[in-house]
Specification:
This protein is mainly beta. It contains five helices and 13 strands.
Length: 210
């Protein structure tokens, strides 16, 4: 099992990341451009959405404004894009993601990462990535996990040009507290963090002074 805090501290730009554990879920966003950094998480009736911190500076909203977290009955959807709504509308995790692909932001071709957490503790994770000019859709299903551990998936493996896509299976990691996760994210690049611990949601936003 990998120490999540060490992993985050040693990775200057994992991009966007999802961590699912037995009693908690984390989702964070990071940014390198002014447009990506100009965001905050705000609560909604069924989850959260991203919003421009300064609307006057908002440029292309297509890939940065979306609902990262929404409920689907008793299940919880967490993603890094508008595929959240695709999953909710289809009502089927795999079928929904078979209709989607990576983001059209050449040359990075940012992967779409998604998770669906079921009320019984089982969960599914997925990454849609660019490979040899096509979309590789990977799905991972877990019956649950032990206390104090979780599984981590991110869009990138680190900084670079183009950005290196996450590779392999979701990483088995330790599950620290929300404030520790927020502190471990790169201070220049972190933007927002969603933390759901036993149903209690806490939002961290760099633009709001967190």
């Amino acid at each position: 099992m990998t120490d999540l805090l060490t992993l985050l501290k040693n990775t200057s730009y994992p991009g966007r990341g999802i961590v699912v554990g037995k009693d908690r879920v984390y989702y964070f966003i990071m940014g390198r451009s002014e447009n990506s950094r100009n965001r905050v998480f705000v609560p909604t009736e069924d989850g959260i959405r991203t919003e421009a911190h300064d609307p006057a500076k908002l440029q292309d909203p297509s890939l940065i404004i979306y609902h990262p977290v929404r409920k689907m009955g008793d299940d919880l959807i967490v993603t890094n894009g508008d595929q959240t709504d695709t999953i909710r509308d289809h009502g089927d995790f795999r079928a929904a993601l078979m209709t989607r692909a990576y983001e059209p932001d050449e040359p990075n071709w940012t992967p779409r990462i998604s998770a669906l957490i079921h009320s019984d503790g089982s969960f599914e994770m997925s990454i849609l990535k660019h490979k040899d000019g096509r979309c590789l859709r990977e799905f991972f299903c877990y019956e649950g996990c032990d206390e104090g551990m979780g599984y981590f998936i991110s869009t990138y493996q680190g900084d670079g040009t183009p950005l290196p896509t996450f590779a392999g299976e979701p990483v088995a990691v330790s599950m620290p507290e929300p404030d520790e996760v927020w502190a471990a994210l790169n201070g220049d690049n972190k933007v927002s963090l969603y933390a759901n611990v036993q149903g209690q949601v806490t939002l961290f936003n760099k633009n709001l002074g967190d």
